[in-house]
Amino acid sequence: MREQDFRELCLNLAGATESFPFGPETPVYKAANGKVFAIMTEPGDPSPAVTLKAAPDDGLAVRAQHPTITPGYHMNKRHWLTVPLDVPEQLLVDLVTESHRLVRPRLAR
Question: Any idea which UniProt keywords this protein has (predicted)?
Fold first, then answer.
């Protein structure tokens, strides 16, 4: 997936915003409650990747099936994955959607 397509994927999720708390080179995507669900590597990086939130058991399973997916870079290794953008597109869409779901605000009953 291209970096621009990844950006659009993130920003099309309900309430998602983009910010640059680490400087203009590192986009961070947050849910409506301000919780981070994706951190992009610097644009133009020769091996673009994104760090995404994941449930611990799901993260282990995904990493077992896809050796290029690693524990989250500079993040809690049980709850975050670093995913290269060249994984199958549907896998990346599913991982981003799940990351957003894990941090988004819960609906009131």
Answer: DNA-binding
- Could you tell me the pTM of the whole model? 0.90
The residue ranges of every structural domain in the chain are 3-103
Which residue in 96, 108, 88, 91 sits closest to 12, CA to CA? 96
* Tokens linked to 18: 């983009």
Architecture of domain 3-103: Alpha-Beta Complex (3.90)
Among the listed residues 68, 62, 37, 73, the one whose alpha carbon sits nearest the alpha carbon of residue 27: 37
Mean pLDDT of all residues in 39-64: 88
User: Is 108 a residue whose pLDDT tops 60?
Assistant: no
